[in-house]
Amino acid sequence: MSHLMLKASTVKEGNEPYSYITSTTEKVEFEKLDYNYYLPLFFDGLTEPDHPYKFLACQGVHELLDNGGPKILPVIPQLIIPIRKALNTKNRQVMCVMLKVLKHLVVSGDNVGEALVPYFSQILPIFRLFKEKNNIGDDEYGEGGENIGQLIGETLELFERHGGRDAFLKIKYMVPTYQSCMTK
Fold first, then answer.
1. Which of 18, 71, 122, 145 is placed for a possible disulfide with 35 were both Cys, Cβ 3.0 to 4.6 Å?
2. pLDDT band for position 10 (50/70/90)?
3. Is residue 9 very low, low, confident or very high in pLDDT (cuts 50, 70, 90)?
């Protein structure tokens, strides 16, 4: 049985984001978690560039996606704002983390890829700006030397493969230079 370590917290005085005082720690089974609350919360944390918040958000998202199954699909609409927020930072490290999470999200449950298609117009415009950023210099690489253009290409291919019959046309409309991976 899988568990997620959750910290029950109270907000510290002050306006700093993510400044918490930890009061208790408990193990919670994934089956009992409210994905409508936790998944968007962890997705929003992916915009945080500082350690340990970035690590905790990334670890939490991947564990939730690995164990969520059918609980993920109904939460997709709530994830769009945090996804856009992370991509629109134009911070390459934050963007690379979000692209890896999007790749994981698409394959995390049945019909998740298809559920993302109506939101392509909100999340793909930034892809167009960075898709061709390949091997131009250190600025184009995110954390660990990942090539952002390559990650965008891989993400778009997964979107097409798992997005159903309308996915390619919507991707092509938003990212005109994209070539279908289904004809290769």
1. 71
2. very low
3. very low
- Single out the residue of 133, 32, 41 nearest to residue 81, CA to CA: 41
Q: What is the pLDDT of residue 146?
A: 78
d(CA 16, CA 49): 14
What the block records as the tokens of 121 is 């117009």
Q: What is the per-residue burial (b if ≥16 Cβ within 10 Å, else e) of 81-93? A: ebbbebbebeebb
pTM over 0.90: no
CB-based burial label for 10 (10 Å; 0-12, 13-18, 19+): exposed
166 backbone dihedrals φ, ψ, rounded to 5°: -90, -10
Q: Is the pLDDT assigned to residue 164 strictly greater than 90? A: yes
Residue 60 and residue 45 in contact, taking contact as beta carbons nearer than 8 Å? yes
